[in-house]
Amino acid sequence: MSEIATPAARARPAQRRAVLSRKAVRTVGRYALVHALGLIVVLFSLLPLLWGVSTALKQPGDIYAFPPRWIPESVTFENFIAVINDPAMVRSFLNTLVVASATTVVSLVVGVLGGYGFSRYRFPGRNTLLWSVLFTKLFPRVVVIVPFFVTLRNLQLMNTYQGLVLVYLMVTFPVAIWLLKGFFDNLPVEIEEAAIMDGCSLPRLLWEVIIPMSRPALVAVAMYAFILAWNEFLFALVFTNGLERRPLSVALAFFIDENGIRWGELMAASIVMSLPAILVFTFSQKLLVRGLGEGAVKG
Amino acid sequence: MALSSADFVARFAGWRARRRAIAIQKRRQAYILVLPALVLIAVMMIYPVIQTLYFSVSRVRLPTFATSFIGLDNFTRIISDPETWPLLSRTLVWVGGTVALRMALGLAAALIFNARVRGTVWMRVLVVLPWAIPSVVGANLWRWILQTDMGVLNQTLRSWRLGDWALNWLADPDTAMYAVIVAYSWGGFPFVMLLLLARMQGIPEELYEAARVDGANWWQSFRHVTLPSLRSVLVVALILEIVSAMNSFDTLIIMTGGGPANATRIWGLEIYKKGFTDFNLGGASALSVLLFAGVLAMFVFYGLVNRGIQGRSRGAQA
């Protein structure tokens, strides 16, 4: 009787072992399945990248080997050296560096000022202005190339660093203002009030109180602006001409000479161009994952 | 009290004036703070919008930029152009194909990496790489892989004696569109994955346990627990992907330049070609206005759907 009442508790050891091992099989099966599927996704993501890296490290003869060789016969940095010794490439690398850095700095300035203004002040037209900032972000890049072309031409900023920074700002400043406004909204007002009581002027208040407190948000804005300006292609293509101001993205898109495309060098240059983005993304992914973890705990 | 009413009024007025002075001063501070943003909006939003609208109803003569009003001629010319309908249908194929592929891959990857199996975190980090690299790099990578003679895909197929499958991927109008859709989706699906994963990790474990207790299998708990929780973020991802596909340019111009035989020429490329190869700024502006109307319609649609979801969930709670 009692055996019928609590069958699980009284089950014979052999049966229990069977249940256990079935569970173990299911766990192992699940483990294997998830790993196998995960590996497929990783291969899809990674194989094209690995082929690019492999090409970049190969000697010219090895690049066109048949059947294709994934691991280079002998690793060479020839392609990287050729890229570094190419004055046009160095020129465009510097152009990109200048434009991306300037975009970052100006985005931070506009973002801190605007974010603080929108966060701490109530003034006529505030909401309209705040929403027009967001609306600016809505403009698709392909749609604005004609009007921006006319604007830059009228401002005589075609083919200049300033012109590129200005068009990139149009993409970055809405994000900068909204992100920083959100961050400032959550800062306690008491510290600023104390500073104002002590006769602290607005510029000093921003520089010595607000900015040191907002480092995480400023880093986020800086990374966003830098990567955007570093990777951008369409504006760079339309608003520059000639080697003088041509950024890296355009240089890579038209990496071709009378001998056709030198794939080894193109892949080497591509790796160089990808580095800042990959660095920032690995760094921010850690932040992202941590943010998600915190959200889960709070939720 | 010696305080006469006149005295009081005077003092009160003085106090008010001082307050107003402070208020004005504060207001001036506020406007100084937001001035850069204001200038950017004026120069980079209001002026360009007016300019585009004006250009779209004008004929623009280069290099003087002299305009003459021609009404809706640019638009009627686009509508009556026999090339426009193929262009539109190609754009729809492109948007539909890339969005479907990106969403499907992103959802599948998110489900795999949400299974919380030990030792899959490194995989998730690696999977994000295609999204992290610049689009120019991704496009060049795929162009190299898909080369007809020397590309690794065709060479591998040939070495496996599957030479018949080694097609002219980017040079054949029949395959070019599929090839660029795969390349573009490859670069974008990790973003969908990250969006969905973030939401999935917020779904309380208890819901799955309850489903398990009720004897739900994997599909049932996906269908009745995961999917309903993902609805709002799926809509966000869908809208973002549709808009980004409508505006894509980099991958296409680098991989095929819109060819072969216009097979991959979509709306965004047409704007660029019309404006900066044919130098028909009026026509390009009209195309821009139409594309922007399409994007705007997507956002309005999103607003309506969003309100619908919120209304329904509020109704469910009540």
Summarize the structure.
With 299 residues, chain A is mainly alpha-helical.
List keywords for this structure.
heterodimer, A: 299 residues, mainly alpha, 15 helices, 79% helix, 0% strand, flat, disordered N terminus, disordered C terminus, B: 318 residues, two-stranded antiparallel sheet, 13 helices, 2 strands
Radius of gyration of chain A: 28 Å
Biggest sheet descriptor of chain A: none
The whole-angstrom Rg of chain B is 28 Å
* Total helical segments of chain B: 13
**Strand segment tally of chain B:** 2
Gap from first CA to last CA of chain A = 47 Å
Beta-strand percent range of chain A: under 5%
Structural class designation of chain B = mainly alpha
Give the overall shape of chain A, derived from the CA principal axes. flat
Mean pLDDT of chain B: 86
Could you estimate the helical fraction of the residues of chain A in percent? over 70%
Look at the helices and sheets of chain A and give the structural class: mainly alpha
Helix and strand sequence of chain A: HHHHHHHHHHHHHHH
Strand order in the sheet with the most strands of chain B: 1-2
Fraction in helix of chain B: over 70%
Secondary-structure element series of chain B: HEEHHHHHHHHHHHH
What would the principal axes of the Cα set say about the shape of chain B? flat
Distance between the termini of chain B: 61 Å
Query: How many β-strand runs of chain A?
Result: 0
Oligomer: heterodimer
Write structural notes for this entry.
The complex is a heterodimer of chains A (299) and B (318). Chain A has helices at 2-5, 7-10, 13-56, 60-63, 78-84, 87-120, 126-138, 141-154, 161-185, 189-197, 202-213, 215-231, 234-239, 248-253, 263-298. By secondary structure, chain A is an all-alpha fold. The two termini of chain A are 47 Å apart. With 318 residues, chain B is mainly α. In chain B, 75% of the residues lie in helices and 3% in strands. In chain B, helix 3 (84-113) runs antiparallel to helix 10 (218-246), helix 6 (135-145) crosses helix 8 (173-200) and helix 10 (218-246) packs antiparallel against helix 13. The longest helix of chain B is centred in the first third of the chain and has 52 residues, at 5-56. Chain B is flat and about 105 Å long. At the A-B interface, helix 3, helix 6, helix 7, helix 8 and helix 9 of A face helix 1, helix 3, helix 4, helix 5 and helix 6 of B.
